[in-house]
Amino acid sequence: MLRSERPWTDRRLSLVCSLGLLGITSFLGASCQSALPEESPPLVDMEEPLNLFAEPADEAQRQQLPLGTFSGLELAGAPSSLDSAFGSNGAAKGLEVERVVENSPAAIARIEVGDLLLEATYPGQAGPTTVELQFPSDWRAIELGQPVGTQVDLLLDRAGRDAHTHLVLTERSAPAARQEAARFREEQRAGIVVRTATEVEARAAGLAPGAGAVLVGLSRNSPWRPAGLRFGDLLTAVNGTPLGHPQILLDALRGAPKDGSIEVTYRRPNAGEPGAAPTFAEPETLKIAVTQRGRAVRELSIPLVFHYERTGPKKTHWSALLGALRYQHTPAAWRFRLLW
Description:
By secondary structure, this protein is an alpha+beta fold. It folds into 3 domains: 65-171, Pdz3 Domain (Roll), CATH 2.30.42.10; 179-289, Roll (Pdz3 Domain), CATH 2.30.42.10; 295-340. Helix content is 19%, strand content 32%. Strands 1, 10, 11, 12, 13, 14, 15 and 16 form an 8-stranded antiparallel β-sheet that branches. β20 (325-329) and β21 form a beta hairpin. It starts with 7 loop residues before the first helix and ends with a strand.
């Protein structure tokens, strides 16, 4: 019986061609891939009224507010997240001292720049009151709430060691420096934009400067809309925790379980004359569902064979066999193409 075989050179050529085709396919597949976005694009249905873009022009009203007491401490802003406000052992990191005014109570107490204030203890109506210091509003609440002559005992961290000192609050002769309002966006679990309340707004609602968050943006699909919240509402607490800074609200939203909910306490501004001092209605608490934003882009690809892509929730596109088959779909129309 005769048997014929392909020469070794033919088989080698076939193997080289196969490997070459595989390499080209892999190269084309790799070159066609694009990096996945790490952040979702901004919500296109977010509504931010123009009259709420800037903070209220209430400096004249702020100058007329009661001055409170004076400690001589200027503290760093709030941490970027609650995780950064705590150490690895769960202990509060405290507030960093940025400046100590000369000849002030803080200077007399030998507090230094870079110290971290951890706790403050002062006389209360029912005995000594101890406050863990996490946000600048915690310290401002003490300066505004305690009378001249109050002794405040401080636990601070200096170069990794705990230290104790005390200062005596004195009379303030000029208003504290104004703090610029900051805006915070949450587009994954709620679809909202908030800004820090001004000192006038915060104190009118019974809060310390730096506390509270004003609702200045809402997505059309935000669960906060059907819950009843409106632009301009002043948020004062979340899940029963006072809102010492808007970051507390953002972390509560991001830490909520899937399909869970949070409790938000707010105060609605009363209608008043332009330029008049703001007033607020009594606090109300709402239970609001927490949602999860869908992914903006989904893609499936087998190089040179099949490619599927969905851009946004209403636009899809797929192609097969090197583009010989193509299909596009939008809410308004669809298109199918056979061959090139």
